[in-house]
Design brief:
Blueprint: H1 2-9, H2 11-35, H3 43-68, E1 72-76, H4 79-82, E2 90-94, H5 101-111, E3 119-123, H6 132-138, E4 142-144, H7 148-161, E5 170-173, H8 182-195, H9 208-217, E6 224-232, H10 240-244, E7 250-259, H11 267-291, E8 298-299, H12 306-332, H13 335-357, H14 371-374
Parallel strand pairs: 1-7, 2-5, 2-6, 3-4, 3-5
Antiparallel strand pairs: 1-8, 6-7
Helix pairs in contact: 2-3, 2-12, 2-13, 3-5, 3-12, 7-9, 9-11
């Protein structure tokens, strides 16, 4: 075990895995670009192809969580709810406290067959991020600037397009709008107090507009809302860099299913429903902090081999020529080639580190709390 942990910590292995992810992502993005010619003739075929292409990329990240780091994910829910996973269009409401909360969500998507068709209401800045933003663009992900007057038409059009999506989708919403920090929480509660809204201890005040709009636009398509509260055992603070280093975490996810029929249609009543939901999420978090677990039965969905096989496919395809090239450079003895190859490795490592930096809490800034942000609800 000590040897395995040591191997996982080796920078060269991490760099090779990053190389596979980046290069395979660029290949996938190019193929996605080529599939655009299908859209005018067969929109649904275009979507099915891109679901599988995006799966091939995202499952590499899921592989790192499940197989490389060995992170465990336990669901706290009933079997009747689990039986519906992957068999209906749903909206997912997830707390936004951790660097890898999206990865834990993707893990559940993968285990229930909806990873490729998973959606999110994403901030517009991510559209410019190579691989991630580009793949999402071809997947018809809805991007927003978190300024409602600018986002209104874009969000409505994007959501309307998804009403006839051919594969079951899980649409993720971070209703808090940004990751939880103590500073943002203080500002958020000042806003709540000024508006006479419920005070929360472990969450930010939810931004109701995104939820009510998504529910309204996808009415007739979405049949349920899954409220997911994520936490980690032993008060762990997981990071993507920790996952890359092979560190194991233990995630607990409380999942509650609400039928869309039981959620008020009126916008204000729907917003009130969401505020009440976050009070319940706060109570769940309080209970978890006291007892170290969520209430209810536990279910541990088994990880699937597909993520590992997918990564091995790309690794075999891409690493063989890279290793052969590296050996040729060393054997050649050419200082110019050797220096060039070293520069390539340095650039690659910096690029991968920057991609990881996209998820880091300290680097994912937000305008949360400024006057413009406060006007959104």
């Amino acid at each position: 075990m000590a040897l395995l942990a040591y191997l996982k910590s080796l920078f060269i292995l991490q760099l090779l895995m990053g190389f596979v992810f980046v290069v395979s992502g660029l290949i996938i993005n190019f193929i996605q670009l080529c599939t655009c010619i299908i859209w005018p003739f067969n929109k649904q075929l275009y979507r099915r192809i891109n679901c599988r292409l995006s799966y091939s990329l995202w499952s590499q990240l899921v592989m790192m969580l499940e197989w490389w780091s060995g992170t465990e994910c336990t669901l706290y829910t009933d079997q009747a709810t689990v039986d519906k996973f992957g068999k209906e269009h749903v909206i997912i409401i997830l707390n936004h406290n951790f660097e890898i909360d999206f990865l834990c969500g993707w893990t559940m998507c993968e285990r229930f067959g909806v990873l490729g068709s998973s959606k999110v209401l994403a901030k517009h800045e991510l559209l410019k991020v190579p691989l991630i933003g580009w793949t999402w663009y071809f997947l018809e992900i809805v991007f927003c600037k978190r300024r409602w007057e600018e986002d209104r038409n874009t969000v409505f059009r994007g959501l309307e397009r998804l009403k006839d999506y051919p594969e079951y989708m899980w649409f993720l919403l971070y209703c808090e709008g940004t990751r939880f920090t103590e500073k943002k929480h203080q500002i958020s509660m000042e806003v709540a107090q000024s508006k006479g809204l419920p005070m929360l201890k472990y969450h930010l005040l939810p931004r109701t507009k995104g939820f009510t709009t998504t529910l309204q636009c996808l009415k007739g398509t979405v049949t349920a809302v899954y409220d997911v509260t994520l936490n980690f055992q032993d008060k762990q603070t997981p990071t993507l860099l920790g996952i890359v280093n092979g560190k194991k975490y233990k995630a607990d996810m409380s999942v509650r299913r609400f039928s869309v029929k039981d959620i008020p249609e009126d916008e204000q009543e729907c917003a009130n429903w969401l505020h009440k939901l976050y009070q319940e999420k706060d109570a769940l978090q309080e209970l978890y902090n006291k007892e170290g677990k969520f209430p209810g039965p536990t279910i541990i969905p088994r990880r699937r081999l597909w993520t590992l096989l997918n990564f091995l496919f790309w690794a075999t395809l891409l690493l063989s020529p890279l290793i052969n090239f590296a050996c040729g450079v060393v054997v050649s003895g050419s200082p110019l080639l050797i220096i060039g190859f070293i520069l390539f490795l340095i650039i690659a490592s910096v690029a991968i580190r920057r991609l990881i930096g996209v998820t880091e809490v300290k680097k994912t800034g937000s305008s949360y709390g400024n006057k413009e942000a406060k006007k959104q609800n």
